[in-house]
């Protein structure tokens, strides 16, 4: 069995900025892998490449034995990769249910014309989409607000909505980019319980998170980036005690303090 995700010597440049530099790692199915590092370390850039939002400048990305780094996003998501975004990407004027359903419409085969004429195949697909969406809304616990416009929901529920929408595509690999940002203590604890529940469904999860309690609790293994480079990889305990990791975080804090003086 090939590894689920293999990132091989990946570099990404934006003009003169090297956002990822020679990053390599791989992981097997069924795990929760954490990705941490100070602001600007290159975490979201790496997620954007794994979900094919843009390609690496150099290097390769393989998913379940298939090279994906030159494929467009619409070909990568059906392979089984879904994600949530650091900046929420919900349609504010749509209900929770519609937001989850809309993510599934793009992946159906019958097309717009047969949907418009309500042909039997399209009707059957619509029912399947409804059911799949509803299952995930229940899974994350949003059934009470399924008919509410997303724009009127608090942040905690919007983050659950993003999770439901990603899960509805039935991914093998789920990328969570700061899913707990802005959540209070209790919501963060509930989110880590949900991450375990997702893992127990057999979905592998790749988690970018600044909340150290959450990432240390949920991750089987953690990869640490600093200024675009991988500086450590290991169990939560190993990376917490790694001098390079401590230095990367403290060094950045000092810079921030100097900057505010
Ligand atoms: N689309 C882009 N165009 C230009 N520069 C970019 C782009 N995306 C990221 N960068 C730059 O790449 C570097 C890494 O950014 P990235 O967003 O990946 O960091 P991050 O680790 O996710 O940070 P944070 O913790 O603040 O979310 C930064 O210097 C950033 O300004
Ligand atoms: Mg980021």
TrEMBL record:
Keywords: ATP-binding, Nucleotide-binding, Transport. One of its GO terms (molecular function) is ATP binding. This is ABC transporter ATP-binding protein. It holds the Pfam family ABC_tran. SUPFAM superfamilies: P-loop containing nucleoside triphosphate hydrolases (SSF52540). PROSITE patterns: ABC_TRANSPORTER_2 (PS50893). Residues 5-252 form the ABC transporter domain. The gene is livG. It comes from Thalassobacillus devorans. It comes from the Bacteria. InterPro entries: AAA+_ATPase, ABC_AA/LPS_Transport, ABC_transporter-like_ATP-bd, BCA_ABC_TP_C, P-loop_NTPase.
